[in-house]
Every structure is written in structure tokens, then in C-alpha cells.
Amino acid sequence: MKLALLYTKNFDGLVMNQPNDKTISSEGKMNEGIASTKLGLKGIPALAEEVMLGRDIELLEYTQGKFHASRISTKKSVELIREAKKKGMNVSADVAIHNLILQDQDCATFDSNYKVFPPLRTSADIQALIEGLKDGTIDAICSDHCPEDVEHKILTFDHANFGIIGAQTVLPLALELQEELGLHTIIDALSHNPRKLLGIHCPTIEEGAEANLCCFSTSDEWTFNEESIVSKSKNTPFLNRTFKTKVWGTIKGSLSTF
After folding, report:
1. Full residue range of the structural domain in which residue 149 is found
2. Which of 19, 20, 15 is nearest to 1 (CA)?
3. Whole-model pTM?
4. CA within 20 to 30 Å of 103's CA: 40, 42, 165, 193, which one?
5. 67, 60 in Cβ contact below 8 A?
């Protein structure tokens, strides 16, 4: 990590890492806590994420590079990023949408579609993540789209693979948080900020500019069922969930999908 942060300074590169100390999280199946104890499942301590993130931030301060923490999930991780930003470090972070919506107690049914990495955390962690988005500590929301074939999901919770599909539900789920986050914060976290972090031009809506739009409605109810899933994989805990936000299509230059 130190070498990566040093070398990428030569071309203003961004080093991205999902903080996880495998020596601590190894063999864990869900968040370590009351829920994992009740369910008899081996836990993944928040410490596994926080120790590695702390290391990365220390190395960032030493090298003065540019670092992005991908898919943070704990309250302390938010605090670590917040303090690093206050010190003026070039650090950013994102959070997976399901870590803002679901919590570890949702694993009580042993449905392997709730098995993700980083794992679903506690309600206190969720609130800290939301506050992090509101105050700019967390820059982006990602889908963490991780399709799995049915053979690797239709297993016991212990043996199933981590991951859920998320590309199709990231916007409808994010807009469920509109009252807490506000529409502009959500759009920035999903669209503008990721582009800025990756050095990609942010399109503008003005006369003469090439169209680059996502068209959606916030008042059309629809049910996310197997028939409506576009992905070849069906591993999602949001099956049969009713959403109020519906994406109608996209426009990119002369191309459109509706």
C-alpha cells in the first residue's frame, strides 16, 4: 500500500482499497454481535475493517498520496474518514446501498441473499453512515453489484457465497432515504461525486451539450420480482419489494433506452 500511494503520486493516481484485515475476518459469515451470537454464526468483527482502514490512513498521511476507501460499513470507519478529511488528507469513501438499508438482524431467516461483504451491520452503524453522507464524509453510494449463480447461493448461510445483485435497485433504494439525505445528496453520491473522484467529465444539462441523462419517476409503484430482474442472476434480498421510484430509461447522445 505504501508503494502504491507513492508511485501513483507521479501521475495523480487514486489508490482504492476495501479495508479488511483477513487475519481478523477469516471464516466470518456475518457481522459479529448480538445477532451472530443468537444465530450461532461466526462473526466478522468491525475491527477487521477499522484496523485496515486505520493503517491505510496512516500510510496516506505518511506518503501524501490519494486514497479511496471502498464500501466502508462501520461507525468507527466513518469517524476515521471524517478525522482524516479534517486533517486535509486526500481521502474519499463510498458505501454500498444495502449497508444503508439492511442490518445484521435481517440475517435471522438464514436467507443467504443477506450474506454480503462487508456484512450488514447494526442500526447504529447505519445511522453513522447516513450522517457521513449528509456531512460529506462519505462521497459516494455504490451498488456493489455482485451476481452469483444459483448453485452458490442455494446453500446454507455458512457455505453460500457473499454478494447480491444491486445495479437495478441502487437508485430506488437510495431514494427511500430521500427524507433523510435529500435528493441532491443522493444524486451527487450516485453520479457526480464518483465521476469527480475518477476524473471523469461531469455532463451538464445545457443547450448544445450532449445528452447524458437518466430518466426516472418517484411516484410510480412497481414490484421487483424475478420477471423484472434484468440480470442473469437472481441473488437479491429485495425480491418482491415494492418501490416508488421507477427508472424509465437513459439517453446518451443519439442513443436511448426506454
Report:
1. 2-202
2. 15
3. 0.95
4. 193
5. yes
